[in-house]
């Protein structure tokens, strides 16, 4: 029976008739003997409907096909792939399995197939071998890892000789064959594009093996480990260390600019980029590990029980997480940080010649990798914050946040950017670094300003809150928490940034906004905390902010006199319907955006996006720490660290559930939005308003106004002043020493690992991988369960 696999493409016809014996090599070999295929050919020749038909109607043939393909990979790994023919067979089996595996995973009845042993699959073919036969999945993974260090196939041979004395693949030390210089390896091998292509195909198959996770619905049960990743990252994989190092180094050493020659990327194919993308994706999937449920694998001199001094066991069983958490040499940290910063900054590189520099597309995978590095290796986090190099990560993140704010298909990108900044903001050094002047002029659709990186952060956050789309509202708590965390360290805000903060307070303290959802007043508490921190700890350099507070003093008086009777509450809610534009442009500078910037654009209609699970509320995401006099942090008791003054933390919201009570957007359709906390049934009461109004921290600001307003008014009358600069000069030299209440202790809300964010990261990461793998479309049109595929 002829397969016609290479011509007519009707490969299922031959599989779909009657069971074919596994020993019929002539029949099975036709599936991988063809020389002229690429992975795209295999996807075109093997349609989804036909794979499903064989799965339903001739299951034994599909099982044998998978088994025989794995067997060929095992044979290739055993022999070392010395001939062109063997290499071609290995690649074709690779492509065929990449094509078929998603259809095995989508059917619950088949899901365990690769974890079963195949009868008679023992080496000798006798029954006694079945006892110790490996599951098919393990044989497949071990063969692929061997093939990834196969001389003359995926790595440079160290022997200068003929085939006869070729290296034995089982005796080589793969640590000598690491793919790229960097962490733990100094030698950079000669680039070889054939090796890069072969590695890419094998990694694509690995990623497809790991993708079983896509076919299980999201669950908060963190014991739900991926068996493929678990085995691959265990001590069973003798290449775990060199493979981890190869993947990390290939990503961090990659320089896509085309060696500085304009348009170089148009003249020469870059065989490295597909490998780098695949390496980044495999790496983040192997690091999908919930650190909140285990003894955390972080290495941090200050906590007890770190991965290094745990005698039993040494950190997590996942060796990739273990290795990542144990990196500690400064030069390794420098290599990783420089590499990630260089790649994240790549889309921002502006050249005078349009399209002359290559733009990379895998910044989301890089952000996940950076998150994992900081989360699993505290020494790396401290290294990042030790110098102003952290700003080389901050600026690209702010660029992505600003650029994606109007695009509903990029909600996930917004979340991960904000999560990273939340993690960084829990460390004092981050706030200190933000005082560095911002001089690089990345074209961004924000007002022109002269100031520091702190100003840039506040201006971008203001832009997200006032002109992002509705689905970003669950992030407002996070954005303002970041500003609160850094506020005690900000030495001098620009007038533009000061006005933005006051503008947010003005918008969030309108009665309709405060009364329209149970958690909206939290935003006012956060902003008041920001002003209090700056006034108490950084008054001297912040005359711009003090001046802005004095100018907008009526906002604070209105808050102090907020009505609490039922009639006023109802009136406040009515006002919402009448107010067409709750945000006034508070300063004219807003009109002028930076030169060369483009406005943030919404997604093209029809753009595919993947759904995300809910993220935990800010009270679950963070824990409060108090900063002592000497700068050390002390964790506060959990019961004291409830965010909301009246003890009802905000409900967790998914990316698809905006708050009720709109943000200060100029929306034509002021429709009431549904809230996750079912606030349709909730109505504000006088007792509820009183419960938090009495806790508004207004004392410091009221005292400041009491002292300074008469003085400023007197100067204006005496000198007939209308000029801001004179008043600012007066405020610069003024002091409130001894006049303000005793400074409150600084509270920092530090990110804490939790299973909610671990699940969010899993769905986000696989969603990115699903959407980015379109050529070939590995998972497209299969029945994934981890997320939904939606069109904007």
TrEMBL record:
GO terms for cellular component: Golgi medial cisterna; Golgi trans cisterna; membrane. Residues 567-684 are annotated as: Disordered. InterPro entries: Hid-1/Ecm30. This is Protein HID1 isoform X2. Coiled coil: none annotated. PANTHER family: PROTEIN HID1. It holds the Pfam family Hid1.
């Amino acid at each position: 029976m002829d397969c016609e696999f290479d011509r007519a493409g009707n490969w299922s016809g031959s599989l779909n008739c009657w069971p074919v014996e596994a020993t019929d090599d002539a029949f099975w070999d036709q599936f991988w003997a063809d020389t002229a295929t690429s992975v795209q050919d295999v996807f075109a020749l093997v349609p989804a409907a036909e794979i499903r038909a064989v799965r339903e109607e001739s299951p034994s043939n599909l099982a044998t096909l998978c088994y025989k393909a794995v067997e060929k990979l095992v044979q290739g790994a055993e022999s070392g792939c010395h001939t062109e023919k063997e290499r071609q067979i290995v690649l074709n089996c690779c492509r065929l399995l990449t094509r078929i595996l998603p259809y095995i995973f989508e059917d619950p009845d088949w899901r365990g197939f690769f974890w079963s042993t195949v009868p008679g699959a023992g080496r000798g073919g006798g029954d006694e071998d079945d006892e110790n036969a490996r599951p098919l999945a393990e044989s497949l993974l071990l063969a692929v890892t061997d093939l990834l260090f196969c001389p003359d196939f995926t790595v440079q041979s160290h022997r200068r000789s003929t085939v006869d004395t070729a290296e034995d693949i089982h005796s080589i030390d793969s640590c000598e064959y690491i793919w790229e210089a960097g962490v733990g390896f100094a030698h950079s091998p000669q680039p070889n594009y054939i090796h890069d292509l072969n590695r890419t195909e094998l990694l694509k198959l690995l990623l497809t093996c790991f993708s079983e996770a896509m076919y299980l619905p999201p669950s908060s049960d963190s014991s739900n480990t991926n068996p493929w990743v678990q085995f691959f990252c265990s001590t069973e994989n003798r290449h775990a260390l060199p493979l981890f190092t190869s993947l990390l180094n290939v990503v961090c050493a990659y320089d896509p600019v085309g060696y500085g020659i304009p348009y170089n990327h148009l003249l020469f194919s870059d065989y490295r980029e597909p490998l780098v993308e695949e390496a980044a994706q495999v790496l983040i999937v192997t690091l999908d590990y919930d650190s909140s449920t285990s003894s955390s694998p972080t290495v941090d001199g200050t906590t007890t029980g770190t991965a290094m001094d745990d005698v039993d066991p040494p950190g997590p069983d996942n060796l990739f997480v273990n290795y990542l958490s144990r990196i500690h040499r400064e030069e390794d940290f420098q290599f990783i940080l420089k590499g990630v910063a260089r790649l994240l900054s790549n889309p921002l590189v502006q050249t005078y010649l349009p399209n002359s520099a290559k733009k990379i597309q895998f910044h989301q995978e890089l952000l996940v990798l950076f998150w994992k590095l900081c989360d699993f290796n505290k020494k790396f986090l401290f290294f990042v914050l030790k110098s102003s190099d952290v700003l080389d990560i901050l600026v690209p993140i702010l660029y992505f946040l600003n650029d994606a704010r109007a695009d509903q298909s990029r909600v996930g990108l917004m979340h991960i950017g904000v999560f990273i900044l939340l993690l960084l903001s829990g460390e004092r050094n981050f706030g200190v670094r933000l005082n560095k002047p911002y001089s690089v002029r990345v074209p961004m659709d924000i007002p022109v300003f002269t100031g520091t990186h702190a100003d840039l952060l506040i201006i971008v956050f203001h832009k997200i809150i006032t002109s992002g789309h509705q689905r970003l509202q669950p992030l407002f708590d996070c954005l303002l928490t970041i500003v609160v965390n850094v506020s005690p360290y900000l030495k001098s805000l620009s007038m533009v940034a000061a006005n933005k903060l006051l503008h947010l307070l003005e918008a969030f303290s309108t009665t309709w906004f405060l009364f329209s959802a149970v958690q909206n007043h939290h935003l006012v508490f956060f902003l008041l905390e920001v002003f209090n921190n700056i006034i108490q700890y950084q008054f001297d350099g912040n005359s711009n902010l003090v001046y802005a507070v004095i100018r907008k003093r009526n906002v604070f008086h209105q808050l102090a006199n907020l009505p609490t009777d039922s009639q006023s509450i109802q009136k406040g809610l009515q006002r919402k319907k009448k107010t067409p534009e709750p945000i006034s442009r508070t300063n004219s500078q807003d009109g002028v955006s930076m030169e060369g910037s483009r406005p943030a654009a919404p997604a093209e209609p029809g753009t595919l996006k993947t759904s995300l699970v809910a993220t935990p509320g800010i009270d679950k995401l963070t824990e409060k720490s108090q900063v002592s006099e000497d700068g050390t942090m002390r964790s506060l008791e959990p019961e004291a660290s409830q965010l909301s003054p009246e003890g009802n933390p905000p409900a967790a919201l998914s990316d698809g559930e905006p708050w009720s009570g709109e943000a200060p957007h100029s929306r034509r359709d002021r429709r009431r939005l549904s809230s996750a906390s079912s606030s349709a049934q909730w109505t504000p009461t006088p007792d509820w308003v009183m419960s938090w109004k009495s806790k508004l921290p207004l004392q410091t600001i009221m005292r400041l106004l009491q002292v300074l307003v008469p003085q400023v008014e007197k100067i204006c009358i005496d000198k007939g002043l209308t000029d801001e600069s004179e008043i600012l000069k007066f405020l610069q030299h003024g002091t409130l020493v001894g006049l303000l209440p005793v400074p409150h202790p600084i509270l920092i809300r530090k990110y804490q690992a939790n299973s909610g964010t671990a699940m969010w990261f899993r769905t986000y990461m696989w969603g990115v991988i699903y959407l980015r793998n379109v050529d070939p479309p590995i998972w497209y049109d299969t029945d994934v369960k981890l997320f939904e595929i939606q069109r904007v």
